[in-house]
Automatic annotation (TrEMBL):
Keywords assigned by UniProt, alphabetized: Iron, Metal-binding, Oxidoreductase
Organism name: Phytophthora rubi
Xref: Pfam families: p450
InterPro entries: Cyt_P450, Cyt_P450_sf
Protein name in UniProt: Cytochrome P450
Keyword Oxidoreductase set for record: yes
Length: 339
């Protein structure tokens, strides 16, 4: 069980409050269960009146259990988890066999909003289709190549300086900084230049910390982090501060882009290319698109989800690559000969 001291990071909490929390714990759990059962009944009633596209039929893989769902299947699959997912995709002919669900969306809401990684149904399908179309555009590919090449050169210069000084380096942190810079520029045109300056910007620190603190919601009991959130304590208090920093940066850029588009003539004079501008171009050309897609909060969710998708996978893959190379001198020697 988590220590009560984990409820705070910097704020002092009286011992009396901690003791009272323990005494009230059984009541809180019982109350949460009762509220949960009522909300489940309401959701079922509401779902009956939903439109058919909103209610995606989900297949159930073998060994899907109550409460645990496919957790045991994931554990048993182990290193073959990719094959397990591919087998189920083939078995169900591409139909969805898992959904994120309301609990996942609630946990991720502050960070990812209603982005593609946090929603199901029509919202997910729509964003998936638009994003898939963006990746077919030459403009986005050219933007990605130009940005990644430039930031790779900056990373090369940093590593060269480290080698010249014969110093050790936290490679994952450095690669995370590299991927954050590259994909922040690709997503919404934010140029941080923290690699060359050798400093971490508030946005980058807030983004890294917000992801870690959001992950804690999946580990800690719901009532625990909800109580922290309500009282402004511990991890939840810090998470809200980080979300404010992220929103202040992203929303200011989104609003500036929208303002520029409002006064820029449609004659191709605006040559700014990033995912946000291309997304706006796409929905502007389609008369069937909802006007709500121009909402700054919705656009914030779109670019933040793309940033999460690009920066984390890139940093983790590169870090694992270099670790694997360090464990295999023979492969390293072959690569050096090839270079």
């Amino acid at each position: 069980m988590l220590p009560l001291s984990a409820m705070k990071l910097e704020h002092p909490v009286p011992h009396a409050f901690a003791v009272t929390s323990l005494l009230l714990l059984p009541i809180v759990i019982q109350f949460s269960r009762r509220i949960g059962s009522l909300s489940t009944s309401k959701k079922r009633a509401d779902s009956d009146s939903d439109s058919e596209p909103e209610r995606r039929e989900v297949e159930r893989p073998p060994w899907t259990l109550p409460l645990l769902h496919n957790t045991l299947s994931f554990i048993l699959a182990g290193d073959n988890i990719h094959e397990w997912i591919a087998w189920n995709c083939e078995r169900f002919e591409g139909k969805p066999f898992t959904v994120k669900g309301p609990q996942y969306h609630e946990n991720m809401k502050e960070l990812l909003g209603d982005g593609v990684f946090a929603v199901d149904g029509v919202k997910w399908a729509h964003q998936r289709d638009v994003t898939r179309g963006l990746f077919r555009m030459n403009e986005l590919r050219e933007c990605m190549v130009e940005a990644v090449t430039r930031h790779t050169m900056a990373l090369h210069d940093v590593l060269k300086q480290i080698c010249a000084r014969n110093r050790s380096v936290d490679l994952y942190k450095l690669l995370s900084c590299f991927s954050t810079e590259a994909f922040a520029e690709i997503s919404f045109g934010l140029k941080m230049d923290c690699l060359r300056a050798n400093k971490e910007l508030p946005f980058q620190a807030a983004f890294d910390r917000a992801q870690r603190l959001t992950a804690l919601r999946f580990i800690r009991p719901r009532w625990f982090w909800k109580m922290q959130q309500r009282l402004g304590l511990g991890a939840e208090d810090q998470l809200q501060l980080d979300i404010k920093e992220i929103d202040a940066t992203v929303l200011s850029i989104v609003q500036r882009v929208l303002a520029q588009r409002a006064v820029t003539p449609e004659d191709g004079t605006d040559k700014t290319t990033n995912m946000l501008s291309l997304f706006l171009d796409t929905i502007a050309k389609d008369p069937t698109m909802d006007e709500e897609l121009y909402d700054p909060v919705h656009l914030r969710d779109v670019v933040v989800n793309f940033l999460v998708a690009g920066r984390d996978t890139t940093a983790q893959a590169l870090s694992w690559f270099f670790y694997s190379i360090s464990q295999n001198p023979r492969v390293e020697a072959k690569l050096r000969r090839g270079i």
